[in-house]
Amino acid sequence: MSGGYDVELFVDTPDYDLICTICQGVLRCPVRVACNHVFCKKCILQWLKRQETCPCCRKPVNQSFIFMMYKLSKSISRLRIKCKNETHGCDATFPLSEEYCHSTACLYELVPCPHQGCGAQALRRDLETHTQRCEHWRQLCHMGCGTLLSLQTQAQHNCYRQLRQEHEAQRQSHRAIAAALQRKMRKMQNTMAHMKRQIGLICESLEVMDSQEEVENAGETTTASSSSSSGSSSSS
Ligand SMILES: [Zn+2]
Ligand SMILES: [Zn+2]
Ligand SMILES: [Zn+2]
Ligand SMILES: [Zn+2]
Ligand SMILES: [Zn+2]
């Protein structure tokens, strides 16, 4: 019968008068009946359903004369107990009142795997190792691409590397475009310089032609009017 606390849990063997004679455990919610015998509340209520006498002294017990023993309950709650996971390796001891609090943090407590559909249990300290290898592991890609990854697809999925490669490829194509533009510009500059030189040459040759014409014209005028001058020059 699971009325009181298991005596084995306690660090020091509990006093005899803290033991419930019905369940042989340490009193849980102790109550006193009219004959002054003390039992767990649950134990005596169950007992009275069958017979309304004290299990210790056989005196009649009236269900409506049962008294809660708060002080005794308090002092029992201060008794030190061992962790129920001692067999798994926990060597912690603490007051009975802190049992629940410890069980929520105990590294040797069996806890269920949080992944949906797994159903496996592991010691709290081993849970992380399990969940990392659990085949029910699912996680959204932390790079934010929205892919739901499993253990199998996680290895192949390489969001970051992919993004980097794409980025690198883009940068290279940008560089190639820039280089091509630069080459074109240099070509144009060369062509322009070449054209400038050509134009220069053309201009020079035009000037030469002009001056030749001038010379010729001048020569004509001089020859036209020089018949006298040449005569004079020949006379000189
Ligand atoms: Zn009991
Ligand atoms: Zn009694
Ligand atoms: Zn523990
Ligand atoms: Zn799992
Ligand atoms: Zn991704």
Can you walk me through this structure?
This protein has 236 residues and is mainly alpha-helical. Among the domains are: 7-94, 2-Layer Sandwich (Herpes Virus-1); 110-156, 2-Layer Sandwich (Herpes Virus-1), CATH 3.30.40. Helix content is 48%, strand content 11%. It is built from six helices and nine strands. The protein has a three-stranded antiparallel β-sheet. The chain is rod-shaped. Mean pLDDT is 88; it is low at 224-236. Bound molecules: zinc ion (5 copies). One zinc ion is lined by residues 3-4, 20, 22-23, 25, 39-40, 43. Pfam families: zf-C3HC4_2. A zinc finger (TRAF-type) spans 102-145.
Short description:
With 236 residues, this protein is mainly α. It is 48% helix and 11% strand.
Please outline the major beta sheet. 3 strands, antiparallel
Strands, count: 9
The third-level CATH topology of the domain at 7-94 is Herpes Virus-1
Low-confidence stretches: 224-236
Q: Encode the helix/strand succession as letters.
A: EEHEHEEHEEHEEHH
Distance between the termini: 162 Å
Q: What would CATH call the class of the domain at 7-94?
A: Alpha Beta
Write out the distinct hetero groups bound to the structure.
zinc ion
Give the oligomeric state of the chains in this entry, treating copies of one chain as homo and distinct chains as hetero.
single chain
